[in-house]
Amino acid sequence: MTPQSEEQLMKRQEARRQQILDAALKVFAVRGLHGAKMSLIAEEAKLSAGQLYRFFESKEELFITLIRQVAKETAREIGNIYNLPGSPYRKLRAFTATILEEDGAQYPFKLIQQANTDEQVPDEAKQLLGQFSAKRFVEELLPLFEEGQRVGDFAQGDARELISAFLTILSAVITLNMPLDDDHRLPSADLLMRIVAGPGA
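Below the sequence we write its predicted structure tokens.
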């Protein structure tokens, strides 16, 4: 086998592995650990169960791998809010709009919610889930909110309390388990931003 074909094979295997993880994210986020079956994940990934087991020996191994990946990606996304253009208000609005409007952007948050309420989650996954404490997210967003309060973008008062209220409502919206139709839709990013908006927003 030539070095080039070995490299191509590795790239194909990595793409297939990520295909499985993407499918697993959707299935675990919707069904939880207990309700998810490897057959459902294989179906979502458009693969056979046998192909799935070549990459992951068990549902638990797949779940832990997924939690580890989501932990890294979520931490990176929260940090990236500071790289977005515009005022603190515009940064938070863009971040919120991405979560609410992009296909699949809510799955990591739904997965975390499912995993935090499931008693059957493996111990290693529970340790990884410790990275998703509300306190950590509040501390990550605190400089943004403090700057926003200084320039009038965000309402005055205890910044930590304001962040906590915003994240609680955003989390509730994301994990809402109700059928949506024309009469009952998810709120827009602009509507949610009214929770924190100051006079300068």
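The chain has one domain: 3-193.
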